[in-house]
Design a protein that fits this description.
Helices cover 65% and strands 10% of the residues. It has 601 residues and is of the alpha/beta class. The strands form two sheets. Strands 6-7-8-3-9-10 form a six-stranded mixed sheet, with helices on both faces.
């Protein structure tokens, strides 16, 4: 219950005007529906009375005018109701999605290595619309369903009390059927999340552009389609079985309701035949029966589905996003409006002390009791073979992963005591697993910069990354979209060109610490040589941590840290490490022989 109250308080606080607009339309709709039935009765009663007299009275014409007015209002209110409902749902859905996305950005990266978390994340992200559903249903209950049912009961008591029994039976039938249906629907949506993700994975593998090329070349598309068919068949069979049960339950409830309504229609016809009620009263009661039946079904659906569906979803949503205060919401709503955060404090040192990290379900730590310090203006290289733990260590250093043991300090302060925005402002990160978004080149370069994004800073970042030579060839320069999927004028960059965009984004805003993980991995040896020469100029006087398995890149550093099996095995300058004749010397000799062999060939 507290979860539902918490979410409703947030919605009423920040989406109040859209909710009140919806409520006003609902009240008006209900009044028009009940009033239309009353005017229908009045018109028919006056008509039959006037026919008996042989002339039409003024009251009859007024009744016709009233009935037509209500009919016109009913037609018009439908358009207004659809508009207010769509606007309301749009605003609520966007609000809930923004909170979810904001919280997802703050969650520790290692959570995304856990299948159970991914199931939960997928379930919550695909069902944020349940909040607008719940509020809509709640408003419908209070301002439509209950009002309509109470009006029907009052009319039935006045004209035909037997119809109250009809309503009671309708309630029982709908409670039972809705409870069965809602339980099955919730269970299937919750238990099939993994299967649904797996089905989507193979479907996307067959359809996505970056995978289609390899499938055509190597001819394994049929294999993936076969996998998708097998997984999807099992997924659809389970879902179809449940949906057939739901349809059967729905059909039984409808048949019972129709038989019940037919029986009471006959009772009312008997009353008209025996002059126990007028034709106008008969028509009004039939209309009120239909209105009450619809509203009872809607009322029960909201209550029962709310227990099995929205309420359970709210509980999981609440546990995912909590704590998220009103101040957090205000800050979220202000994002993107040009507000500038405070400047970071000047960097002095980065200390890694006894840091360890083990990935979920991994038998051994990827980083094991690592300690070192990076001082202002120092360039440190972390070198090692693949799997040595150097990339994991780099993620721990800027807070991409949360260390399971030890501490990481910036200027003597634990990085995990800082809010993410404050922490990330110190770093310019060129990650090995980088993403290029379907945005303009300039937006990709500026996307992670929380400081000033002036043209002057952009131009400086372009020059440092040697990106200007790429921009000069693009149709719209820095405003060119990096994707053909969403823009006819978009372009596709090569691996080396994407690397330059990444480097420009790393340099953007002159961050205090450059953390670069294999930034030359996507380029050929000659381009790598040019990039290394450029890096020497860019890194002059700056603080940097360079992650690589290549000696040429590592030698840009003042100090080299060598890692193996998650631990630091050596540390020092290139010349000293060569003399030590340890792992670094072996790596150096191996790469030297490789380049010598390539030259001879």
């Amino acid at each position: 219950m507290k979860e539902t109250v918490w979410i409703l308080k947030k919605l009423f606080r920040f989406c109040f005007k859209y909710i009140m607009g919806l409520i006003a339309i609902m009240l008006l709709t209900t009044v028009i529906a009940v009033g239309g039935n009353a005017m229908n009765k009045l018109m028919l009663d006056e008509l039959f009375a006037d026919v008996a007299k042989g002339s039409l009275s003024v009251a009859f014409y007024f009744a016709i005018a009233g009935y037509v007015t209500f009919w016109i209002l009913k037609s018009l209110i439908g358009y207004l109701q659809a508009f207010s409902n769509n606007l309301f749902r749009l605003k609520i859905d966007v609000f809930m999605q923004r909170i979810f996305m904001k919280k997802s950005n703050d969650i520790n990266q290692e959570q995304f290595f856990r299948p159970e978390f991914l199931d939960r994340h997928a379930f919550l992200s695909e069902n944020t619309y349940k909040a607008s559903n719940f509020v809509f249903k709640l408003a419908t209950i209070i301002f439509n369903n209950i009002f309509s049912v109470i009006s029907a009961i009052v009319v039935f008591v006045m004209y035909e009390p037997l119809l109250v029994i009809y309503l009671g039976i309708v309630v029982v039938v709908n409670v039972i059927s809705t409870a069965i249906i809602s339980k099955k629907q919730y269970e299937i949506s919750r238990t099939q999340i993994t299967e649904e993700r797996y089905t989507s994975y193979f479907k996307n593998s067959c359809m996505q552009k970056n995978m289609a090329k390899d499938q055509r070349i190597f001819g394994y598309g049929a294999k993936l389609i076969g996998k998708w068919k097998n997984v999807n068949r099992k997924y659809q069979e389970k879902r179809m079985k449940v949906m057939n049960q739901v349809d059967s339950c729905n059909n039984v409830a409808q048949v019972i309701t129709y038989i019940l309504k037919a029986a009471f229609d006959i009772i009312l016809l008997f009353s008209v035949q025996n002059k126990m009620c007028t034709v106008g009263t008969f028509v009004m009661l039939i209309g009120m029966m239909e209105l009450a039946t619809q509203n009872i079904k809607g009322l029960i659906t909201v209550f029962v589905q709310g227990a099995f569906d929205e309420a359970r979803y709210f509980k999981e949503y609440y546990e995912y996003v909590y704590p998220f205060t009103d101040e957090d919401v205000k800050q979220m709503l202000e994002e993107g409006k040009g507000n500038v955060t405070d400047k970071k404090k000047e960097f002095c040192s980065l200390v890694v002390k006894n840091v360890s990290y083990t990935y979920p379900n991994s038998p051994a730590p990827a980083v094991n009791d690592v300690s070192f310090e990076v001082k202002k203006g120092e360039i440190v290289s972390i070198l090692g073979y693949n799997g040595s733990g150097k990339t994991t260590l780099s993620k721990l250093m800027y807070g991409g992963l949360k260390n399971a043991g030890g501490t990481i300090l910036i200027n003597g302060r634990d990085i995990h005591e800082m809010v993410p925005e404050e922490r990330f402002r110190y770093f310019g990160v060129a990650s090995q697993e980088f993403s290029i978004h379907a945005l303009s080149v300039k937006e990709n370069v500026c996307i992670g910069c929380v400081e000033d994004m002036s043209d002057e800073l952009c131009k400086k970042a372009y020059e440092q990354a040697d990106l200007q030579s790429v921009l000069d060839k693009l149709p719209n320069g820095e405003d060119t979209i990096i994707s053909k999927a969403y823009d006819n004028d978009g372009i596709e960059l090569s691996g080396g060109e994407k690397q330059k965009v990444l480097l420009a984004a790393t340099y953007m805003g002159d961050p205090e610490i450059l953390l670069m993980d294999e930034p030359t991995a996507s380029v050929d040896p000659m381009k790598e040589y040019e990039m290394l020469k450029n890096l020497r100029k860019v890194l002059n006087g700056r603080t940097a941590v360079l992650i690589s398995h290549r000696i040429g890149f590592a030698r840009l550093a003042d100090r080299i840290i060598v890692m193996e099996n998650g631990r630091i095995t050596e540390e020092g300058r290139h010349e000293d490490l060569i003399q030590n004749d340890g792992l670094y010397a072996r790596i150096f000799q191996g790469q030297k022989e490789l380049y010598t062999y390539a030259k001879e060939v």
